[in-house]
Amino acid sequence: MVTYLNALAWTVTGTQAYANKAITFMDSWASTIKAHNNTNSPLQSGWVASTWARAAELIRYSNAGWSAASITKFEGMLRNVYLPLVKDGAPNYMGNWDLVMAEAAIFIGVFLDDQTVYDAGMTKFLNRVPAYIYLESDGNLPKTAPGDTTTNTISLFGASHGSVIPRPLGSFGI
């Protein structure tokens, strides 16, 4: 999150120190991390990857000074460390994991400029959102959303973030 906040601060203020800090974090992680390996790693990868990709997108398409070699290394991190953990989602986790992982796949696809990754993430997202959000037309006995308020809030963040990214890419199917 701190990388994304620095990228946002750079975008808003133009202060190079913010860009430099974001680049330092992205370069450090891209050259260090090889895998995630705990039981929550798919969920945590979803949270982190979507934020990484958004920060990287802001830095990459500006005059922040991020080198082509560093961008390539960062792309490799997203494709090889994070994408394998999020691309298939987690349909048995009711929505929380699935929405967060779909959001991450969408943002990774955008950053990698990979239409196949983007489309797969968007398909998962479009299939999961209706199953997670209750509408009156669903009937009298809605299924209670899983987890606690925090879990449900995070799921809704995944739904809202995933729904806004298609507009710049021209995908208006939502």
UniProtKB/TrEMBL annotation:
UniProt-recorded name of the protein: Alginate lyase domain-containing protein
Residue ranges annotated for the Alginate lyase domain, each copy included: 3-142
GO cellular component, one term: periplasmic space
Leader sequence segment: none
Keywords tagged on the record: Lyase, Signal
GO molecular function, one term: lyase activity
Superkingdom assignment: Eukaryota
